[in-house]
Amino acid sequence: MNSELTVQELTALMKKAAGVTVDAKDMERRLDTGFSEIGLDSLGLLGIVGELENSHGRALPTDAERCKTPREFLNLVNSSLMAGA
Amino acid sequence: MSSQPGRRSVITGIGVVAPNGTTTETFWKSTQAGTSVLDKVTREGCENLPLRIAGEVRGFEPADLIEETFLVQTDRFSHFAMAAADMAREDARLGRADTVDDPFAVGVVTAAGSGGGEFGQRELQKLWGQGSRFVGPYQSIAWFYAASTGQISIRGGFKGPCGVVASDEAGGLDALAHAAGAIRRGTDAVVVGAAEAPLAPYSVVCQLGYEELSASDDPARAYRPFTTGASGFVPAEGGAMLVVEEEAAARDRDVRARAVIAGHAATFTGASRWEQSREGLAQAIRGALQEAQCAPEEIDVVFADALGVPEADRAEALAIADVLGSGATRVPVTAPKTGIGRAYCGAPVLDTATAVLAMEHGLVPPTPNVFDVCHDLDLVTSRARPAELRTALVLSRGLMGSNAALVLRHGTDALS
């Protein structure tokens, strides 16, 4: 499970961890929209970080849960996963 | 914290999620008919526990009523509270348009006796089954007593005084007094009440140590207060939320004052010290009457606590007689909760909702499953009794020793 986190997977995690329904194609087009505007609160993002850490079997940087937008989050998570690959 | 004179609290909206009805209409229909819905416990994981009979809320579909973002981070007890709050707001016609200009004018108060046991158990099982990394972050809020107040506040955008009353089962009445206090100090409206979900394995196990819990496996005999067959109480889930408003603010919105919260008092006499609860309950009744400036003979109906433990039933019957009189001056007493069980903090709020509906319909609902009363009480049994009801008294006691009394007056008195 060292593959890159896709927008599709992120939307699936948002649904699972926080009950937030977002269309993946929709989010592709607005990766800089804030999580808060999308309806994902900080505990929801923390839950997503936990899910990713468990599925990848490794810790993510503590900054991951402080990301404000999907783009920021994807960049940070993917660079961290790539660095460890 | 100064009180402003003349600011009276009136009930303008009622929302109910109860074992005998998940709308206020069905709840009242079953309650006035005296239907008992006590039944075998069927909730998952509870089937083989020694608690056999309870009042379950069945046919409640939270996904139809509450947004998924709120559902994933809340326990069943908050689902009940959010759904009931929606109904109460709709009943009071308290919409976004009424609150968006001044969100600080509306507060939220709930009472809770046990918090979110089902959610908590699920996450604790992950902790011990898979490890701490598998515990979801919403565990940090979902199982706390305060969860329902917080979620109703966030969901409705209510930024006025918010609080949680954790004072035992009688806290359901104390929450209403807390709301009335906020209104006296200047808040226009408070969404207030209590709902509980104590029928999950962890929560049931926590209750098994209560000596007052009924061990009966017969739904018709498990909860029969004020009879020689009294053998404890049956727990229930559900509860009620009300919209309580400042009288003039309700009038300005052209909303009917369904009842006035006229007086309240609370006392404490110690856990399971039922004989002593006689004096504690009597003192609470006196305090509530005094605040309501209500003479004992003005009380037209009493909604009893009705624990179902002989010593506690005797104490309550004596407390009622001590303050309201006995013999020829007896007042009608009822305990509709014998048909649905005791929803802990939700129970006295359900009784308050019933008291308002009873005054509106001029009908004292009966006490299901209770027939041969062995105390000096005019307990209404078998069928509802028509009566002109202008003032009602609601009583509640908690297993840990809290006693509370609430005096309600009929709404039309308020606007005369």
UniProtKB/TrEMBL annotation, chain A:
Pfam families given in the database record: PP-binding
Residue span, Carrier domain: 4-85
Phosphoprotein in keyword set: yes
Keywords annotated in UniProt: Phosphopantetheine, Phosphoprotein
InterPro entries hit by this protein: ACP-like_sf, PP-bd_ACP, Ppantetheine_attach_site
Protein name as it appears in the record: Actinorhodin polyketide synthase acyl carrier protein
Species whose genome carries this gene: Streptomyces jeddahensis
Automatic annotation (TrEMBL), chain B:
UniProt domain Ketosynthase family 3 (KS3): residue ranges: 6-410
Keywords for the protein's UniProt record, in alphabetical order: Acyltransferase, Transferase
Keyword Transferase assigned: yes
Alphabetical list of Pfam families matching this protein: ketoacyl-synt, Ketoacyl-synt_C
InterPro entries cross-referenced by the UniProt entry: Beta-ketoacyl_synthase (IPR000794), Ketoacyl_synth_C (IPR014031), Ketoacyl_synth_N (IPR014030), PKS_Beta-ketoAc_synthase_dom (IPR020841), Thiolase-like (IPR016039)
UniProt keyword annotation of Transferase present: yes
GO MF term set: 3-oxoacyl-[acyl-carrier-protein] synthase activity
GO process terms (BP): fatty acid biosynthetic process
Similarity comment text for this entry: Belongs to the thiolase-like superfamily. Beta-ketoacyl-ACP synthases family.
Protein's name in the database: Ketosynthase chain-length factor
